[in-house]
Amino acid sequence: ANITESHERLQLTPKYFVEKAFEEIRRYNSEHPEKPLKTVATVILTSENYDKISEMVQYVCNVYGANGVKFISYIPMSLSLANFSPTLEQLAVSIAKISEVREQYDPNQLYIQRGGTIGSQGLSDEKLKHLCPAGDGVIAITSTREGASVTPCIYIKNIEIGKIVDGIPVIDSEKLGTFRQIKEHAIASGYCPAHAITTRQNQNKGK
Question: In this structure, are residues 68 and 40 in contact, taking their beta carbons and an 8 Å threshold?
Fold first, then answer.
């Protein structure tokens, strides 16, 4: 459900494979109606498709035949592709359109979700508490070698909150506390912490 011109550069799963996978699931479900598989299509929002929510939901329904769609924001992991990441203002447009489209579909037929990377805009205080588990319920480990870095999220690679010691992750409470302050500020500003941090890092690299 991503725009064709961005798909190759973002190195996503080839469109053909995704469509084929959903086709196989539909075939399985038709043969096993008593135990059908539920499917959710994850759609990445970029600076080029952020306002095409309705069109992408229709694509998911008509082409994939999915039971749900989850929108997430593209995290600018590299400077060369940073321009594909939607701005906070663009994400506000996406959020409004997601709310509009939800009114058009029965959630029992198609459940429409917004992922945490879209940020905190428009969320209730209760939902804000569960927006981002980075550094709390979630940590990221990319290697088990001695001294390897432990980070708060797979998307936040340059902030270390601990190290691997004797094969297990050991968290540095001071570093974790510093990250939590950064996380709190990002969420208060409307961002997903990973989105805010990687955007700032790319801006600094571009100077």
Answer: yes
